[in-house]
Amino acid sequence: MSSHREAPEVSKDPVADNTDVYAFVSPDKPDTVTLLANFIPFQNPQGGPNFYEFGDEVLYEIHVSNRGDARPDVTYQFRFRTKVRNDSTFLYNTGPIDSIDSPAWNRPQSYSVTRVARGDRARLLASHLACPPVNIGPRSTPSYTALASQAVHSIQGGRTVFAGQRAEGFHVDLGSIFDLGTLRPFQMLHLIPSAAAVGVNGTQGLNVHSIALQVPISDLTRRGTTPTDPLDPGSVIGVWATASRQKSRIWDAERGSHSWRGPYSQVSRLGNPLFNEVITPMAKKDRWNSSAPHDDSHYASYVARPELARLLPALYPGVFPHLAAYTKDRADLLAILLTGIPKGVVPGFQNYTGSTQADMLRLNVAVPPTTTNPNPIGLVAGDAAGFPNGRRVIDDVVTIELRAVAGATIPLVDPTFVPDGAASVVTDGTSNTNAAYLDAFPYLGHPAGGYQTTPGTPGG
């Protein structure tokens, strides 16, 4: 989670596994939008000598729709290239890596960025951009902050890009939630109760690989402008990310590796956090990953009648009686996840993209960023710059979506419904216990180092 190992096939292909997508108006540069797409879940910082890296054979893409039909209007493509400098050593590095062009780094990786606009030809924005190495330890990567800074590149069009390892920014009590839906702060109320205990962040100490792009707002909007009216339909964009592989894989015995041939086929995608993870049935998750957002009406029934909304009253007897008695389709979730919130529901706000049901992050770029005390519960708590208006790295999306599923957002569309008291306080009990988020691009914290990391102690 948010979409770490969320489907059977992509869980076997981690370099193509899209874990999280973020889209927000940059708090320190409010005339820009920052787009982040993370891949390669659950990275152990000590995982050498073959440390984690992007896949040279994977096409990574971030898509933006601005016409209301959930089809890409602007796509940014990222292709990676890895080389080995010294073929006589097994080492990732042969000495301290004091810069991203250090000859001591034996396996450097670089990439290109291409922009594709609907109806136009692809345009190469930059190539041979250096990634940073992974965070190995104080001897191998003695000043990781400086190395990461060298990998932030300004490219044409006032755009900024970074691609490399970051600290996991998503937090969730994985061990608890997958143990029959236990919410660790409230497990004494579970059908199978246990003593109260604080939540445990299951992603603590782990890293991901992030593709981060900061672009002028006008690069993404329908009319190429920077809207200022949140109620203007042209102020809303839809965002999702994908990973694709060529269709044919051939084993080359002479090289000792696979080669890929043929057209690209999508193997992973992600818009809203947790959509494929906890809404799509397991038997359909792989199909969902290979399909396009504009076809998501096939999955609308699972949003209208989410399995988790049925499980909460069953697993927590007597805690959610109003939710248990609610028999209508969940129009609130259909709006939040599949169409955006239309005008008139939240005063002064909308992020409606039209009637096409599609899983996308929907960002109203005319809503200014909250720069003082942003609320991690986002729009539900009155902070319109937060999820489900796009998604910031600080947003506690697990808590937000748990409360929504538990009925906290039903009154937005059905004023006759009174949420259960638990709906406004339910949480998985975790916070970010990895490296602190950054105040500037690329916003996700610096990755945990291999030498510095102490593995956890398994429980009985």
UniProtKB/TrEMBL annotation:
It comes from the Bacteria. This is DUF4331 domain-containing protein. It comes from Pedococcus badiiscoriae.
